[in-house]
TrEMBL record:
InterPro entries: ARM-like, ARM-type_fold, MM3350-like_sf, Plasmid_pRiA4b_Orf3-like. This is Plasmid pRiA4b Orf3-like domain-containing protein. Residues 365-402 are annotated as: Disordered. Pfam families: PRiA4_ORF3. It comes from Candidatus Chloroploca asiatica. Residues 227-386 form the Plasmid pRiA4b Orf3-like domain. SUPFAM superfamilies: ARM repeat (SSF48371), MM3350-like (SSF159941). Residues 386-402 have a biased composition (Acidic residues).
Amino acid sequence: MGEEDHPLEDWLFISARVPPGNLDQHFLRLVRTSLDQLEKALAGEAGSKQRFSDLLPPFSELTPLTLPPSERERAQQLAVQLAKRGTRDAARAEAFLLNAIGFTQATESLPFWQALLDLKRSRDSFAPRRRQFAVGALALLAIRQASPAAYAALDAALQHTNEQVRAQAAYYLGSAYTIPRRPLPEHVLVALNACASNDPAFEVRYQARMTLRYVGVPAPLDRPGGVYLFRVQLRDDRSGATRTIALRPEQTLEDLHFAIQDAFAWDADHLYSFFLRGKEFDAAYEISGPDGDPFAGALFGEDLQLITGEEAAGVEDDEDVEPLDATTAVLGQLGLRVGHTLLYYFDYGDDHKFDVRLVTIQPQAEPGDYPRLVESTGDAPPQYYGDEDEDDEDDEDWEEEI
Protein backbone atom coordinates (compact mmCIF):
# COMPACT_ATOMS: atom_id res chain seq x y z
CA MET A 1 0.00 0.00 0.00
CA GLY A 2 1.08 3.56 -0.60
CA GLU A 3 1.90 6.35 1.78
CA GLU A 4 -1.25 8.34 0.98
CA ASP A 5 -4.58 7.83 2.70
CA HIS A 6 -6.73 5.02 1.38
CA PRO A 7 -9.63 6.36 -0.72
CA LEU A 8 -11.98 3.79 0.80
CA GLU A 9 -11.34 5.11 4.28
CA ASP A 10 -11.93 8.69 3.16
CA TRP A 11 -15.21 7.73 1.48
CA LEU A 12 -16.42 5.74 4.49
CA PHE A 13 -15.52 8.54 6.87
CA ILE A 14 -17.31 11.18 4.81
CA SER A 15 -20.37 9.12 3.91
CA ALA A 16 -20.90 8.19 7.58
CA ARG A 17 -21.42 11.90 8.24
CA VAL A 18 -22.84 13.10 4.91
CA PRO A 19 -24.72 10.22 3.24
CA PRO A 20 -24.75 10.30 -0.57
CA GLY A 21 -27.77 12.15 -1.91
CA ASN A 22 -28.88 14.64 -4.52
CA LEU A 23 -26.28 17.29 -5.22
CA ASP A 24 -27.12 20.86 -4.20
CA GLN A 25 -28.05 22.89 -7.29
CA HIS A 26 -25.30 25.44 -6.65
CA PHE A 27 -22.67 22.69 -6.43
CA LEU A 28 -24.17 20.95 -9.45
CA ARG A 29 -23.81 24.11 -11.57
CA LEU A 30 -20.17 24.45 -10.51
CA VAL A 31 -19.47 20.80 -11.34
CA ARG A 32 -21.13 21.05 -14.75
CA THR A 33 -19.18 24.20 -15.57
CA SER A 34 -15.93 22.47 -14.64
CA LEU A 35 -16.76 19.40 -16.71
CA ASP A 36 -17.59 21.63 -19.69
CA GLN A 37 -14.27 23.44 -19.35
CA LEU A 38 -12.32 20.19 -18.98
CA GLU A 39 -13.96 18.81 -22.12
CA LYS A 40 -12.93 21.89 -24.09
CA ALA A 41 -9.39 21.82 -22.71
CA LEU A 42 -8.95 18.12 -23.45
CA ALA A 43 -10.23 18.63 -26.98
CA GLY A 44 -7.30 21.00 -27.59
CA GLU A 45 -3.74 20.03 -28.45
CA ALA A 46 -1.98 17.69 -26.05
CA GLY A 47 0.98 20.07 -25.79
CA SER A 48 -1.08 23.10 -24.75
CA LYS A 49 -0.20 24.84 -21.50
CA GLN A 50 -3.72 24.70 -20.09
CA ARG A 51 -3.69 23.82 -16.38
CA PHE A 52 -6.48 21.31 -15.88
CA SER A 53 -6.45 21.80 -12.11
CA ASP A 54 -7.40 25.45 -12.62
CA LEU A 55 -10.67 24.27 -14.16
CA LEU A 56 -11.83 22.31 -11.11
CA PRO A 57 -14.64 23.56 -8.85
CA PRO A 58 -13.48 25.80 -5.98
CA PHE A 59 -13.75 23.19 -3.24
CA SER A 60 -11.77 20.24 -1.87
CA GLU A 61 -11.54 16.97 -3.77
CA LEU A 62 -12.99 15.32 -0.63
CA THR A 63 -16.18 17.38 -0.84
CA PRO A 64 -19.06 14.84 -0.79
CA LEU A 65 -20.36 14.99 -4.35
CA THR A 66 -23.10 12.65 -5.59
CA LEU A 67 -23.07 13.03 -9.35
CA PRO A 68 -26.24 12.56 -11.41
CA PRO A 69 -25.92 9.73 -13.98
CA SER A 70 -25.19 12.03 -16.92
CA GLU A 71 -22.46 13.94 -15.06
CA ARG A 72 -21.01 10.73 -13.62
CA GLU A 73 -20.63 9.29 -17.12
CA ARG A 74 -18.99 12.50 -18.33
CA ALA A 75 -16.63 12.48 -15.35
CA GLN A 76 -15.64 8.88 -16.12
CA GLN A 77 -14.85 9.70 -19.74
CA LEU A 78 -12.84 12.77 -18.72
CA ALA A 79 -10.91 10.81 -16.08
CA VAL A 80 -9.74 8.35 -18.75
CA GLN A 81 -8.71 11.19 -21.06
CA LEU A 82 -6.79 12.90 -18.24
CA ALA A 83 -5.03 9.61 -17.45
CA LYS A 84 -3.78 9.47 -21.03
CA ARG A 85 -2.28 12.97 -20.73
CA GLY A 86 0.04 11.77 -17.98
CA THR A 87 1.06 15.14 -16.49
CA ARG A 88 1.08 15.97 -12.78
CA ASP A 89 -1.52 18.63 -13.32
CA ALA A 90 -3.75 16.18 -15.19
CA ALA A 91 -3.31 13.73 -12.30
CA ARG A 92 -4.62 16.32 -9.82
CA ALA A 93 -7.72 16.83 -11.93
CA GLU A 94 -8.11 13.08 -12.38
CA ALA A 95 -7.93 12.53 -8.60
CA PHE A 96 -10.74 15.06 -8.11
CA LEU A 97 -12.96 13.25 -10.60
CA LEU A 98 -12.16 9.79 -9.21
CA ASN A 99 -13.09 10.96 -5.71
CA ALA A 100 -16.42 12.30 -6.97
CA ILE A 101 -17.19 9.14 -8.96
CA GLY A 102 -16.25 6.95 -6.01
CA PHE A 103 -18.35 8.88 -3.50
CA THR A 104 -21.35 8.64 -5.83
CA GLN A 105 -21.33 4.86 -5.23
CA ALA A 106 -23.07 3.88 -8.46
CA THR A 107 -22.99 0.18 -9.32
CA GLU A 108 -23.15 1.28 -12.97
CA SER A 109 -19.53 2.44 -12.54
CA LEU A 110 -18.24 -1.09 -11.97
CA PRO A 111 -16.99 -1.54 -15.57
CA PHE A 112 -15.25 1.84 -15.34
CA TRP A 113 -13.36 0.88 -12.17
CA GLN A 114 -12.39 -2.50 -13.59
CA ALA A 115 -11.12 -0.88 -16.78
CA LEU A 116 -8.92 1.48 -14.74
CA LEU A 117 -7.07 -1.52 -13.31
CA ASP A 118 -5.85 -2.36 -16.81
CA LEU A 119 -5.16 1.19 -17.98
CA LYS A 120 -1.51 1.39 -19.03
CA ARG A 121 0.70 4.11 -20.40
CA SER A 122 4.44 4.73 -20.23
CA ARG A 123 5.86 6.80 -17.37
CA ASP A 124 2.54 7.02 -15.57
CA SER A 125 3.43 8.11 -12.03
CA PHE A 126 -0.25 8.34 -11.03
CA ALA A 127 -0.96 4.70 -11.95
CA PRO A 128 -0.46 3.30 -8.40
CA ARG A 129 -2.84 5.87 -6.94
CA ARG A 130 -5.36 5.26 -9.74
CA ARG A 131 -5.38 1.54 -9.02
CA GLN A 132 -5.89 2.30 -5.34
CA PHE A 133 -8.94 4.39 -6.23
CA ALA A 134 -10.29 1.60 -8.42
CA VAL A 135 -9.91 -1.26 -5.93
CA GLY A 136 -11.14 0.95 -3.09
CA ALA A 137 -14.23 1.87 -5.13
CA LEU A 138 -14.99 -1.81 -5.75
CA ALA A 139 -14.76 -2.42 -2.00
CA LEU A 140 -17.03 0.55 -1.29
CA LEU A 141 -19.69 -0.80 -3.64
CA ALA A 142 -19.42 -4.18 -1.95
CA ILE A 143 -19.74 -2.64 1.52
CA ARG A 144 -22.45 -0.05 0.90
CA GLN A 145 -24.43 -1.64 -1.93
CA ALA A 146 -23.80 -5.33 -1.07
CA SER A 147 -23.10 -5.70 -4.78
CA PRO A 148 -22.35 -9.31 -5.81
CA ALA A 149 -20.66 -7.96 -8.94
CA ALA A 150 -18.35 -5.80 -6.81
CA TYR A 151 -17.40 -8.78 -4.64
CA ALA A 152 -16.74 -10.82 -7.79
CA ALA A 153 -14.56 -8.01 -9.17
CA LEU A 154 -12.51 -7.97 -5.95
CA ASP A 155 -12.11 -11.75 -6.17
CA ALA A 156 -10.88 -11.38 -9.74
CA ALA A 157 -8.44 -8.64 -8.72
CA LEU A 158 -6.65 -11.18 -6.51
CA GLN A 159 -5.54 -12.85 -9.75
CA HIS A 160 -4.59 -9.66 -11.60
CA THR A 161 -1.28 -9.55 -13.46
CA ASN A 162 -0.23 -6.41 -11.56
CA GLU A 163 1.12 -7.21 -8.09
CA GLN A 164 -0.02 -3.87 -6.66
CA VAL A 165 -3.61 -4.65 -7.68
CA ARG A 166 -3.36 -8.09 -6.07
CA ALA A 167 -1.99 -6.61 -2.83
CA GLN A 168 -4.73 -3.99 -2.68
CA ALA A 169 -7.38 -6.59 -3.44
CA ALA A 170 -6.11 -8.70 -0.53
CA TYR A 171 -6.27 -5.66 1.75
CA TYR A 172 -9.66 -4.40 0.59
CA LEU A 173 -11.30 -7.84 0.56
CA GLY A 174 -10.87 -7.86 4.32
CA SER A 175 -12.56 -4.46 4.54
CA ALA A 176 -15.36 -5.50 2.20
CA TYR A 177 -16.43 -8.32 4.51
CA THR A 178 -15.42 -7.22 8.02
CA ILE A 179 -16.80 -3.67 7.92
CA PRO A 180 -20.39 -4.78 7.15
CA ARG A 181 -19.88 -7.83 9.41
CA ARG A 182 -20.24 -10.37 6.63
CA PRO A 183 -18.38 -13.67 6.96
CA LEU A 184 -15.72 -14.39 4.38
CA PRO A 185 -16.93 -17.14 2.02
CA GLU A 186 -14.87 -20.29 1.88
CA HIS A 187 -13.67 -19.60 -1.66
CA VAL A 188 -12.30 -16.21 -0.55
CA LEU A 189 -10.44 -17.79 2.37
CA VAL A 190 -8.97 -20.36 -0.01
CA ALA A 191 -7.89 -17.63 -2.44
CA LEU A 192 -6.32 -15.53 0.34
CA ASN A 193 -4.44 -18.55 1.68
CA ALA A 194 -3.14 -19.27 -1.81
CA CYS A 195 -1.91 -15.67 -2.15
CA ALA A 196 -0.41 -15.74 1.34
CA SER A 197 1.62 -18.85 0.55
CA ASN A 198 2.34 -18.80 -3.16
CA ASP A 199 2.22 -15.30 -4.62
CA PRO A 200 5.66 -14.25 -5.94
CA ALA A 201 5.26 -10.68 -4.60
CA PHE A 202 5.99 -9.94 -0.94
CA GLU A 203 3.32 -7.20 -0.75
CA VAL A 204 0.61 -9.64 -1.83
CA ARG A 205 1.72 -12.37 0.57
CA TYR A 206 1.89 -9.90 3.45
CA GLN A 207 -1.48 -8.21 2.84
CA ALA A 208 -3.20 -11.57 2.42
CA ARG A 209 -1.69 -12.74 5.72
CA MET A 210 -2.77 -9.58 7.51
CA THR A 211 -6.33 -9.97 6.25
CA LEU A 212 -6.42 -13.61 7.36
CA ARG A 213 -5.05 -12.59 10.74
CA TYR A 214 -7.68 -9.91 11.12
CA VAL A 215 -10.56 -12.30 10.45
CA GLY A 216 -9.15 -14.80 12.95
CA VAL A 217 -7.54 -17.28 10.56
CA PRO A 218 -3.91 -18.09 11.43
CA ALA A 219 -1.48 -16.96 8.76
CA PRO A 220 0.66 -19.72 7.22
CA LEU A 221 3.92 -20.43 9.08
CA ASP A 222 6.75 -20.76 6.58
CA ARG A 223 9.56 -23.27 7.09
CA PRO A 224 8.55 -24.57 10.55
CA GLY A 225 11.53 -26.15 12.27
CA GLY A 226 13.97 -24.33 10.02
CA VAL A 227 16.31 -21.37 10.54
CA TYR A 228 16.31 -17.85 9.08
CA LEU A 229 19.74 -16.24 8.64
CA PHE A 230 19.70 -12.43 8.57
CA ARG A 231 22.73 -10.32 7.63
CA VAL A 232 22.56 -6.95 9.39
CA GLN A 233 24.47 -3.79 8.51
CA LEU A 234 24.11 -0.19 9.67
CA ARG A 235 23.33 2.08 6.74
CA ASP A 236 26.02 4.61 5.83
CA ASP A 237 28.54 2.86 8.07
CA ARG A 238 31.84 3.13 6.20
CA SER A 239 33.45 0.30 8.14
CA GLY A 240 31.17 -2.23 6.46
CA ALA A 241 30.70 -4.16 9.70
CA THR A 242 28.06 -6.88 9.47
CA ARG A 243 26.49 -9.41 11.78
CA THR A 244 24.72 -12.58 10.64
CA ILE A 245 22.08 -13.77 13.06
CA ALA A 246 20.13 -17.04 13.07
CA LEU A 247 16.53 -17.17 14.31
CA ARG A 248 13.74 -19.71 14.19
CA PRO A 249 10.66 -18.96 12.04
CA GLU A 250 8.59 -19.27 15.23
CA GLN A 251 10.40 -16.32 16.82
CA THR A 252 9.32 -12.70 16.57
CA LEU A 253 10.54 -9.34 15.34
CA GLU A 254 11.15 -8.46 18.99
CA ASP A 255 13.56 -11.40 19.19
CA LEU A 256 15.31 -10.06 16.09
CA HIS A 257 15.46 -6.58 17.66
CA PHE A 258 17.23 -7.81 20.80
CA ALA A 259 19.49 -10.10 18.76
CA ILE A 260 20.69 -7.15 16.66
CA GLN A 261 21.34 -5.10 19.78
CA ASP A 262 23.32 -7.94 21.37
CA ALA A 263 25.28 -8.60 18.19
CA PHE A 264 26.45 -4.97 17.98
CA ALA A 265 26.85 -4.62 21.77
CA TRP A 266 24.38 -1.73 21.89
CA ASP A 267 21.84 -0.81 24.56
CA ALA A 268 18.28 -1.66 23.55
CA ASP A 269 16.87 1.34 25.39
CA HIS A 270 15.08 3.23 22.61
CA LEU A 271 11.96 2.90 20.47
CA TYR A 272 12.18 1.01 17.20
CA SER A 273 10.25 -0.15 14.16
CA PHE A 274 10.70 -2.61 11.33
CA PHE A 275 9.69 -1.40 7.87
CA LEU A 276 9.07 -4.55 5.92
CA ARG A 277 9.69 -3.10 2.46
CA GLY A 278 12.95 -1.46 3.48
CA LYS A 279 11.61 2.10 3.24
CA GLU A 280 11.31 4.35 6.28
CA PHE A 281 7.90 5.79 7.19
CA ASP A 282 6.18 3.24 4.94
CA ALA A 283 3.24 3.03 7.34
CA ALA A 284 1.37 0.23 5.56
CA TYR A 285 4.37 -2.07 6.10
CA GLU A 286 5.58 -0.85 9.50
CA ILE A 287 5.61 -3.02 12.62
CA SER A 288 6.75 -1.18 15.74
CA GLY A 289 8.02 -2.29 19.09
CA PRO A 290 5.48 -2.69 21.90
CA ASP A 291 5.89 0.96 22.90
CA GLY A 292 5.07 2.10 19.38
CA ASP A 293 6.37 4.61 16.88
CA PRO A 294 5.95 8.21 18.11
CA PHE A 295 5.28 9.33 14.55
CA ALA A 296 2.58 6.76 13.68
CA GLY A 297 -0.74 5.39 14.86
CA ALA A 298 1.05 2.30 16.14
CA LEU A 299 1.90 4.38 19.23
CA PHE A 300 -1.43 3.21 20.60
CA GLY A 301 -0.63 -0.45 20.05
CA GLU A 302 -3.34 -0.92 17.43
CA ASP A 303 -3.35 -3.14 14.40
CA LEU A 304 -3.26 -0.57 11.61
CA GLN A 305 -4.99 -2.89 9.16
CA LEU A 306 -8.57 -1.79 8.46
CA ILE A 307 -8.95 0.23 11.68
CA THR A 308 -9.62 3.60 10.10
CA GLY A 309 -12.23 2.18 7.78
CA GLU A 310 -14.06 0.42 10.57
CA GLU A 311 -14.15 3.46 12.79
CA ALA A 312 -15.49 5.49 9.89
CA ALA A 313 -18.25 2.95 9.39
CA GLY A 314 -19.15 3.03 13.07
CA VAL A 315 -18.05 -0.56 13.69
CA GLU A 316 -16.24 -1.38 16.90
CA ASP A 317 -12.86 -3.09 16.74
CA ASP A 318 -12.77 -6.82 17.28
CA GLU A 319 -11.37 -7.28 20.77
CA ASP A 320 -10.29 -10.82 19.91
CA VAL A 321 -7.66 -9.56 17.46
CA GLU A 322 -4.29 -9.39 19.19
CA PRO A 323 -2.53 -6.06 18.52
CA LEU A 324 0.17 -6.40 15.90
CA ASP A 325 3.57 -5.24 17.09
CA ALA A 326 7.06 -6.68 17.23
CA THR A 327 6.13 -8.95 20.14
CA THR A 328 3.38 -10.70 18.14
CA ALA A 329 4.81 -10.50 14.61
CA VAL A 330 6.14 -14.01 13.99
CA LEU A 331 8.96 -14.12 11.45
CA GLY A 332 7.63 -17.17 9.64
CA GLN A 333 4.21 -15.55 9.23
CA LEU A 334 5.40 -12.39 7.45
CA GLY A 335 5.84 -13.94 4.02
CA LEU A 336 9.60 -13.28 3.79
CA ARG A 337 11.73 -15.00 1.18
CA VAL A 338 15.48 -15.24 0.63
CA GLY A 339 16.88 -11.93 -0.59
CA HIS A 340 14.24 -9.79 1.12
CA THR A 341 15.56 -6.74 2.99
CA LEU A 342 13.87 -5.10 5.96
CA LEU A 343 14.68 -1.73 7.47
CA TYR A 344 15.27 -1.83 11.21
CA TYR A 345 14.86 1.74 12.47
CA PHE A 346 16.25 2.14 15.98
CA ASP A 347 16.26 5.26 18.16
CA TYR A 348 14.21 8.00 16.50
CA GLY A 349 16.50 10.62 18.04
CA ASP A 350 19.87 9.33 16.81
CA ASP A 351 18.25 7.90 13.70
CA HIS A 352 19.98 4.52 13.35
CA LYS A 353 18.88 2.55 10.28
CA PHE A 354 19.95 -1.03 9.69
CA ASP A 355 19.45 -3.08 6.55
CA VAL A 356 18.38 -6.58 7.56
CA ARG A 357 18.66 -9.01 4.66
CA LEU A 358 17.37 -12.57 4.74
CA VAL A 359 20.36 -14.34 3.17
CA THR A 360 19.27 -17.95 3.49
CA ILE A 361 16.72 -20.27 5.05
CA GLN A 362 18.00 -23.57 6.40
CA PRO A 363 15.42 -26.38 6.33
CA GLN A 364 16.36 -27.83 9.72
CA ALA A 365 17.53 -26.05 12.87
CA GLU A 366 20.49 -27.40 14.77
CA PRO A 367 19.93 -28.12 18.46
CA GLY A 368 20.50 -25.21 20.82
CA ASP A 369 19.21 -21.79 21.70
CA TYR A 370 18.14 -19.14 19.22
CA PRO A 371 18.70 -16.34 18.28
CA ARG A 372 22.42 -16.90 17.84
CA LEU A 373 25.22 -14.94 16.22
CA VAL A 374 26.77 -17.06 13.45
CA GLU A 375 29.11 -14.59 11.75
CA SER A 376 30.71 -11.25 12.64
CA THR A 377 32.81 -9.02 10.38
CA GLY A 378 34.35 -5.68 11.37
CA ASP A 379 34.17 -3.66 14.56
CA ALA A 380 30.71 -2.64 15.67
CA PRO A 381 29.95 1.04 15.00
CA PRO A 382 29.42 3.20 18.11
CA GLN A 383 25.87 3.65 19.30
CA TYR A 384 26.45 7.25 20.38
CA TYR A 385 28.68 9.52 18.33
CA GLY A 386 30.95 12.22 19.76
CA ASP A 387 34.33 12.63 21.36
CA GLU A 388 34.67 10.45 24.44
CA ASP A 389 37.06 12.90 26.12
CA GLU A 390 34.48 15.67 25.78
CA ASP A 391 31.88 13.37 27.29
CA ASP A 392 34.20 12.69 30.25
CA GLU A 393 34.77 16.44 30.75
CA ASP A 394 31.02 17.05 30.64
CA ASP A 395 30.52 14.36 33.28
CA GLU A 396 33.18 15.95 35.52
CA ASP A 397 31.63 19.41 35.14
CA TRP A 398 28.22 17.99 35.97
CA GLU A 399 29.59 16.29 39.10
CA GLU A 400 31.27 19.54 40.24
CA GLU A 401 27.99 21.43 39.85
CA ILE A 402 26.28 18.89 42.08
